[in-house]
Amino acid sequence: METAAERRKSRFADLALVLSGGGARASYQVGVLAAITERVPELEAPILTGVSAGAINATSLASSPGSFSSAVGTLRREWKGLTADNVYCVRPTSIVRSSFRWLLRVLLRRRSGPGVLRGLMDMTPLRQFLSETLVLDGIARNVAAGRLDAVALSATSYTTGRTITFVQGHENVPVWERALRAAVRTELRLDHVLASAAIPIVFAAVKLEDGFYGDGSVRQTAPLAPAIHLGARRLIAISMRMPRGPVAPSVPIGDYPAAAEVVSLLFNAVFLDSIDADAERLERVNQLVAALPAGQASPGGLRKVDLLLLRPSRDLGALAKGHETKLPSLVRFAVQGMGGRRARGSDLVSYLMFEPSYTETLMDLGYSDASAQWPRIEEFVAACEC
Fold this sequence. Notes:
ten-stranded mixed sheet; 15 helices
């Protein structure tokens, strides 16, 4: 006789959760998941994929013991205790020393190699925090128990320029090779998680067996693809961008953009744009598959994949405005000097604002947004019974 756990597993067997990056904005994902699991405590997500800060969330969910609902509760508690001091620190002497060495080489025309700046911020606090909160052995235990099929984290190789997805799961878990992206089977370690979250220039690259890696969002043009390659037919993806409104016919030129506005635009392009573009591609594929005559095989093995894309009702960057005073002093002065107080400069602040005053606001917003969109979510989850 089939057990209750087996019935749940079969009901959600083809469901995947896709978690994108975005620094402190990733706390929004936790609020959304809290609202969903509160209403569907039996929910399971056998396939978990993540990149950057989403990789940290995905790894926490994949390694926690017990049900998916209890794993979300654990992740929520971890975010509530997180501060900027647990994520990064700035050591000005290291920056000055590296800059001086680079300048000295230029002036003396030395050819011993370029100066090396290993990131404006030090990730050591994050490594320490994650080493205390993540129990990575739990991934193998959850796979063995049948609660998890696979977890996949993506990072960017500085050696090849490709997006590499590191996959841990059951023995038959697939891997793939595509243009500028590939997957490899491995036992996930803390370095894989940190590599996925190492924003170029901001954080130092992380060395793995075959070279140095940085944030997986940089060249990940198809963030939904890893979950689909792993066999998912239903995806829950959580975007951290509001639905796009119509573009104004004319926009005042205004002042020359501040550095914070330029960096904000760059970060938004890296962390927010790709999931929207990939969702559009998936919709076109679904339309193509639906238009095929009955009985005709789809080209290239294409199949229909249902997507539930959840978005915030408010601008997460705008919500960071006024929180600059909570940043570490040196970071605060740097951000303000870059124009972080301007309207669009607050986007930059939002990526760095690992403080409860901001992250709990985002978790509350995620919870209320999921509650407001519950009829749509409920319909999607109910379809998993078919």
